[in-house]
Amino acid sequence: MEPRGPSEDAPQPSVDPGPALLARAEQALRLDPAWRLAEGRALTWWGHHLAQRLTAAPPQTAAGREVVAVRITTDVLRALPEGADTDEAVENLNRQAHLSAWVHDRAAATLVLTSSVYVHAGNAPWLGLLLVQAAAIQAADAHAKATWLPGALGAEAAASQHPASGPRAEASDMLNVMHDLYAATTGPTPFDAALFAGLVAMAPAPWLRVTAAPSSAGLDATLPDGGRLTLRGNARHATLGPGAALHLALPLPAGMRARAAAARLRAAEAEAWTGFNLLGSWCETEDLPELEFRTFLPARIHWPGLLDSFIWTAAARARWAAALLS
Q: How far apart are CA 19 and CA 10, in angstroms?
């Protein structure tokens, strides 16, 4: 079953949502014309000294409708040295994932933050909103990390400039979004026990077994491909404040190491057409090394049906990853 979100069940017209999504992102991110560059199905903007690209691929037909993969990528480091210290740093970054993955391209010696969403006419209203928020968080996090990562890893910040306007001297206010909007959230969590009671009772559902978490503000599920899904609505992110944490743990094939598997899956999701959103990241866990995909949804990013979609996506991701690693 395809991952679903709000208002997707009605028949939808065949339409290419790519150009409208880029226009919506440009408006919502409040991009200054002097620091943005639109080229066909791509939009590049400079929040400060790093460039972020939003690219809407040509549509593909899936289930009778036009689906567009929109990728969001921010260059963070270049001239990144090889070695155990770099590998451990990349895993640490991905263990703290929110709505993007840190991908180390060894051949190019670069480190980028990347996300992707698969948009069609049925999900464009809500997924377009999520795309914009993921892009804003990604740009802010990239710039924040670029202040200290180059020195810590012996690399260079992947600084660039607008081809006509040159380097941007003053940062966009959008780069304050993590601190000013998400981390500053107060009040009761929207991811509460009542919400999770509904999720546990969902039918149809992608799991074999599911139980409510001991706190009731969460759930634990076993998926058909051996994956374990954990959702907690009372989590807290180091830079994004309160929200919901989703962890998908997968069993490893015999002889395969979690770190190598995580790097392989990150690279594959960043490049391949999977059909499910890349909003989070694969990583090797901290203690007993195993393979996990982690997502964090800030408390301000919430509407009916959103967690349902993330649950179905987790099940699709588990099937895809199990097949790729087998």
A: 23
Answer yes or no: is 140 within a domain. yes
Alpha carbons 226 and 319: distance in angstroms, whole number: 9
Residue 305: domain span:
18-325
- The H or E element containing residue 71 is strand 65-78
- Whether the per-residue pLDDT at 10 is higher than 70: the answer is no
What residues does 291 pair with on adjacent strands? 250, 284
Q: pLDDT for 59-71, tens place per residue?
A: 999 888 899 999 9
In the prediction, which pLDDT does 12 show?
47
| Span 75-92, pLDDT tens digits | 999 999 999 999 999 999
Q: Which residues pair with 119 in a beta bridge?
A: 68
12 belongs to a structural domain? no
Output the CA–CA distances (angstroms, integers) from residue 244 to 98, 166, 205, 234, 302, in the order listed. 10, 39, 20, 6, 10
Q: Determine, yes or no, domain membership for 57.
A: yes
Our count of domains for the chain comes to 1
* Number of CB atoms found within 10 A of residue 70's CB: 26
Which residues neighbour 193 within 8 Å (Cβ) at sequence distance 6 or greater? 212, 215, 216, 217
